[in-house]
Amino acid sequence: MVEYWNCAKTFRCRPRLYVEPTSIDSLRTLLNEINKRKSKVRVIGCAHSPSGLSMSNEVLISMKHFNRIIEIDEKNLEIHCESGVLLSRLNEILPQHNLSLKLIRI
Ligand SMILES: Cc1cc2nc3c(=O)[nH]c(=O)nc-3n(C[C@H](O)[C@H](O)[C@H](O)COP(=O)(O)OP(=O)(O)OC[C@H]3O[C@@H](n4cnc5c(N)ncnc54)[C@H](O)[C@@H]3O)c2cc1C
């Protein structure tokens, strides 16, 4: 069993299963299997959340391979991309289209 920590090392978990699917078909098959077993699923990104939000001892799915930029609509200030795209990638690509991520002060 793999031990998984958030990046600040303040929360950890031991998922029963950790998967990095590489295609929609493999993701679909995985979810059907998990559904049959009535397991709970949590999606994980980079585990940068300072909370335990992304931790789970059941099934963890990383979307890291789903990282395609599908469409950039400069006119409407929109980007359509897959859910595993990293913010660092967006920060490289968006300025090339005169766009940027919205800054939210916390
Ligand atoms: C040094 C530092 C500075 C930060 N500064 C800021 C800041 O200025 N403003 C701010 O808003 N945040 C800030 N954060 C928080 C951080 O940016 C957010 O927590 C970020 O959303 C974490 O992204 P992650 O991919 O690591 O998600 P994780 O920590 O892996 O997951 C966070 C949540 O998102 C869900 N999730 C992750 N990926 C997906 C996906 N593909 N599909 C569906 N659900 C998913 C998880 O299940 C979990 O509930 C900071 C964090 C750090 C470490």
UniProtKB/TrEMBL annotation:
Superkingdom to which the source organism belongs: Eukaryota
Gene Ontology terms, MF aspect: FAD binding; oxidoreductase activity, acting on the CH-OH group of donors, oxygen as acceptor
FAD-binding PCMH-type domain segment(s): 11-106
Name of one Pfam family that matches: FAD_binding_4
Residue stretches in coiled coil: none
Name the record gives this protein: FAD-binding PCMH-type domain-containing protein
Organism: Rotaria magnacalcarata
